[in-house]
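Thread: Newbie trying to understand structure tokens

Hi all, I'm a second-year student working on a class project, and my supervisor (Dr. K.) asked me to get a predicted structure for one chain before our next meeting. I've only ever worked with sequences, so writing a 3D structure as a token string is new to me. If someone could post the tokens and maybe explain what I'm looking at, I'd be very grateful. Here's the chain:
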Amino acid sequence: MKNKRKRRPSIHPKYIYIFLSIVCALLVVLSFKFSNQFTDFKTMVGDFISPMQGGINKVGKFISDKTDLLTSKEKLLEENKQLKEKIDALNYDNKILASENSNLDNYRELYKLDQQYPDYPKVVATVIGRDGNNWFNLFTIDKGRDDGVDVDMNVIAGNGLVGIVSEAGRHYAKVRSIIDDKSNVSAMFEKTGETCNVKGNMKSIYKGFIDITMISNNAEAKDGDSVVTSRISDKFLPGLLVGYISGIKEEIDGLSKSAQLTPAVSFDNLESVLVITTLKDSSEIEDIKNYD
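---
Reply by user tm_fold:
Sure, no problem. This is what the structure looks like when written as tokens:
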């Protein structure tokens, strides 16, 4: 048989607690009754404990400072996050307001233009695309046949003529502007009534102008005079502002003059336009020709 291990005698924790309580009570009594006798002992204990207490206080203060710093850092990070979210929200609101203000300015401009030509029915259209380059020589609008827009209808914006509808679908239309190389507008000088031809020029528009040709050698037009669509144009309604003349010069053949035209519309930024929903009456042209 295996030897049984001897169990070590154990003391119940309750008795240890009672013993320590009695010792503490005796020490308290003795410290009050024999306080003078324990003075040197207290001093020695104080001298021993004081440095330890100072070190403990320093460690505690260091830990407390680091904890406060960490708490402050976390608080600042949270506040910074909240501020960034507010800034992002404000930036978004500012963009919305800027867009709304821009749209409002466009509509005011279109309304003013509408009042200049009250006899012509019109529909507002938004530019939804452009072809090829940075200039709006060929672009697409969001109105089509279902909105009363058709081929050869005149398009205006800003202060005057933009171009003419070259293609029309049910819900869209394409516009060829007066700056396009294929564009020709029969025009006249508003003051004198003398005719000319406004021809698109995609190279010259980078300098801010297009071409005016077929000016009579005896024309009295001067730099700065306004140019409008003429009565004898087969597609353009009469009296629409096209732009302003400058740089008049005599052609080499000596039979006519040419010049430059600064368009009345900015063709590097078009957002909304007005489409005049009536076509030029060709019978008027025949009457004019027959009269002449």
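A couple of things are worth pointing out once you decode it. The chain has a mean pLDDT of 82. The chain is about 35% helix and 25% strand. Feel free to ask follow-ups in this thread.
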